[in-house]
Structure formats: C-alpha cells, structure tokens
C-alpha cells in the first residue's frame, strides 16, 4: 500500500491512474478536493478495490494518524499543494496553510509512524516530496539550466511556500533520519490539466472563441514535460533514489510562451479548423504581465538520467499533439470543470460524512 496525497489533481491523478494501470500495490488517495481536485479525474478507477479515496486535508493530524495506522503504507508520495502562481499572488494564505503547514503536519505524522515501524519496514519506508523548479528562482537567457546544486531563490508566494516545504523535508531527514526523497520538476502538461494554466487555458479559450491572454511580451521561457513522463520519473525515484537526495526532472524542452501558444493554435487549425477559416492565432491578445514574473526556467536533468536511468518518453511535438487531441476528445470534462458541476457533485456526495469515503 502507498499513500498518495493530492491524487485528484492534475499530476496526482495521472500518477494514480498510471500506478493502478501498472498493476502495482493499492493506493490510498488523500485529497481535500479544493477547486483543483476533481473526482472525475479518477472515474476510470471508481470501484477498483486497489484505489481507496479519502477526502481530507494533509494538515489534519488526527486523520493522518488514523490513515497511517489503518493502511500501513510503505511510502507516502506528497503531491498535495496549492499550485497556481497567479492565485498565490492574489491570495497567498492557502499556499502557506497547505504547502508549508500541511507539509509540516504530514512530515510529523510520517515521522511518528515511521519511528514505530519494525526494523525491516522502517528500512523500506520512503517519503517522496513532489516539488518544483520554481524554487531556484529565475534564469537569464545565458545562464546554465538549474542543477540540484542551485541556490534556492524563490520569487512568488507559491514558489516561496514550495521552497519552505522542501526545506522542511530536508530538515526532517537531516534531524530525524526520515527517509525522504525530493523531486523538482519543470512545467508539466497533458490530460487532466486544470484550465487556469497556460496550455489548457489556451486550448479551452481558443475553442470557445475567447482571447488567448499572453502575459507581457510572451518571451518568458518555460521547460515543458509531458505529465506521464513526470509520473514515470517519480516512480523511478521512489524505487531507486538515494535517501535525502533531490532530483531535478525535466524534458529538455525550453520554449518561449508565445511559441507554445502558436503551436497550440496551429494544432487546433489542423485538428478543429475554425468555421470562418481563420487561424486561432487571431485570438491572441497581449495582456498586462504577471507581477514578479520569472523570465526563464530550465532544468538540467542529467542527475536523474545518470543515477537512475530515467529519460522522458515524449518529445514536445508528440506530447503537445496528444494533449490537444485529449481536450478535443473530452469536452464533457472541460464543461464540468468550467461549470463547476463537478464540485456540486462532490458536495452532494460527501455532505453526510466528508471523511474517508471510498470512491467504490
Ligand atoms: P493541482 O493544483 O492540479 O492539484 C493539487 C491537488 O492537491 C488537488 O487535487 C487539491 O484538491 C489537492 N490539495 C490541495 N490542498 C490540499 C490539502 N491541504 N490536503 C489535501 N489535498 C490538497 O496541482 P498539480 O499541478 O497536480 O501539482 C501537484 C504537485 O506537483 C504540487 O505539489 C506542485 O507544486 C508540483 N508541481 C507541479 C508542476 C506543474 O507543472 N503542474 C510542476 C512541478 C511541480
Ligand atoms: O515550473 C513548474 C511550475 O509550473 C509548477 O510548479 C506550477 O505549479 C505550475 O503552475 C507551473 O507554473 P507557471 O507559472 O510556469 O505555469 P502557468 O501555466 O501559470 O504559466 C506558464 C507561463 O505562461 C508563465 O510564464 C505565465 C504565462 N501565462 C500563463 C497564463 C495562465 C500567460 O502568458 N498567460 C496565461 O493566461
């Protein structure tokens, strides 16, 4: 059994679906179901006895203690977080509560549980913390890509909260010996991506005939990784990562935002041409820049390749085509997310007993 947190969100759900599809051991999936958590992401494992869904908060110590005692996981994979930079600028409080305080509570519960395990299980236990390249701050056009030795220089409330959580994870290893692993990944994209982030927002807005808002000059660079490649990297680190180490995960796909938006438009022009024959590019609108906007991220992923033999399977061309196609094939998912219908369903479903309900 493994305990996954945040497994109803974008990356966590992709991870849980891959894990279950691979026939691995059962998963307890603890997710608070914030606006970003969506049980429909897990529709295909509903009723599967190897997936137990629990609605709850990683900051709830009593719940964590109960889940750990009941399910005796051999690992915890912590995806749960507030993840959107723009939201962190407008309201940082939730980011501190979940990313900092929540991670602290999860670490403490894990430590109490791990310390009481018998020797063999204690030796095998792992706490894997999923983090971001944004903790390293921003790069100039000529700087080398972020390596694991880069200084932490977070610039947004989001990245500062993630940096704080990484430091807590590191300290729990150094001080208490908790067997931790940390991954710092670049921008993910792929199926189930909530349409507040660049790529899904562009696809969804384009199809709805809305503006495609590009911040500032659109020349900020991000380094893109297909989400299932991120999931395979996490599996590999969980399997063979060295305790206390951090691993940078990336796809060697640095691209300016405007190029991403142009690529999405070109794919939509090919796969779902506009009725008026014009290109979706005509919907691009340059808008006010994000405050404190980091100019460039780039990941040096040589350590995970050298030590653990991990490499991404998708190129950007194959991954972005699959992604655009997924959104075209799943209009109900998009409609549910946009209308908020999935949240109403969740509220109805969990009203009586909000804690510990299996999806089954
Ligand atoms: P997301 O916002 O799509 O999903 C987050 C999930 O966590 C949601 O299901 C939400 O309900 C849940 N959650 C939030 N607060 C919680 C709490 N207090 N207790 C339990 N569950 C809670 O995020 P994502 O994009 O899937 O990111 C997952 C993790 O990966 C995050 O830690 C993020 O920092 C990290 N990350 C993301 C990216 C990316 O490009 N999306 C890149 C690198 C790292
Ligand atoms: O680098 C990893 C990080 O990537 C993760 O840790 C975060 O959780 C994840 O949200 C993502 O952060 P970004 O801020 O890079 O992602 P976002 O999709 O919000 O923005 C990508 C780039 O596109 C960024 O430079 C801002 C720009 N942008 C974004 C939106 C939503 C636009 O130009 N227009 C937009 O409408």
Structure characterization notes:
The chain is of the alpha/beta class. The chain has a domain of 248 residues: Rossmann fold (3-Layer(aba) Sandwich), CATH 3.40.50.720. 44% of the residues lie in helices and 15% in strands. It is built from 13 helices and twelve strands. The chain has a seven-stranded parallel β-sheet with strand order 3-2-1-4-5-6-10, with helices on both faces. A three-stranded mixed β-sheet has the order 7-9-11. A two-stranded parallel sheet has the order 8-12. Strand 5, helix 6 and strand 6 form a beta-alpha-beta unit. Helix 1 crosses helix 8 and helix 9 crosses helix 11. The longest helix has 23 residues. The chain is globular, with a radius of gyration of 20 Å. The C terminus is likely disordered. Bound molecules: nicotinamide-adenine-dinucleotide and 2'deoxy-thymidine-5'-diphospho-alpha-D-glucose. The site of nicotinamide-adenine-dinucleotide (NAD) has 31 residues, from helix 1, strand 2, helix 4, strand 5 and strand 7.
């Amino acid at each position: 059994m493994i305990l996954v947190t945040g497994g109803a969100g974008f990356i966590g759900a992709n991870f849980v679906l891959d894990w279950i599809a691979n026939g691995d051991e059962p998963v307890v999936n603890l997710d608070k179901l914030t606006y970003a958590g969506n049980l429909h992401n897990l529709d295909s494992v509903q009723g599967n006895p190897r997936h137990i869904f629990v609605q709850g908060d990683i900051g709830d110590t009593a719940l964590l203690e109960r889940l750990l005692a009941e399910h005796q996981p051999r690992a915890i994979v912590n995806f749960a977080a507030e993840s959107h930079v723009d939201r962190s600028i407008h309201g940082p409080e939730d980011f501190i509560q979940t990313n900092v305080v929540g991670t602290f509570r999860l670490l403490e519960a894990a430590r109490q549980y791990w310390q009481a395990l018998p020797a063999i299980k204690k030796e095998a236990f792992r706490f894997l913390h999923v983090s971001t390249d944004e903790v390293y701050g921003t790069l100039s056009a000529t700087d080398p890509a972020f390596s694991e030795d880069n200084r932490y220089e977070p610039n947004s409330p989001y990245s500062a909260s993630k940096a704080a959580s990484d430091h807590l994870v590191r300290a729990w290893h150094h001080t208490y010996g908790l067997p931790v692993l940390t991954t710092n990944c670049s921008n993910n994209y792929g199926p189930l991506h909530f349409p507040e982030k660049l790529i899904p927002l562009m696809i969804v807005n384009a199809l709805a005939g809305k503006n495609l808002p590009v911040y500032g000059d659109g020349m900020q660079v991000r380094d893109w990784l297909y989400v299932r490649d991120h999931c395979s990297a996490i599996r590999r680190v969980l399997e063979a990562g060295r305790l206390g180490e951090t691993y940078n995960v990336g796809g060697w796909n640095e691209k300016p935002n405007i190029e991403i938006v142009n690529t999405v438009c070109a794919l939509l022009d090919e796969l779902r041409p506009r009725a008026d024959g014009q290109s979706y590019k005509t919907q691009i609108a340059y808008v006010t820049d994000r405050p404190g906007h980091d100019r460039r991220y780039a990941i040096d992923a040589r350590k995970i390749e050298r030590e653990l033999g991990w490499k991404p399977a998708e190129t950007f061309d194959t991954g972005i085509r699959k992604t655009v196609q997924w959104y075209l094939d799943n209009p109900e998912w998009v409609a549910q997310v946009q209308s908020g219908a999935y949240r109403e369903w969740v509220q109805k479903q969990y009203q009586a007993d909000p804690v510990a309900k299996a999806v089954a």
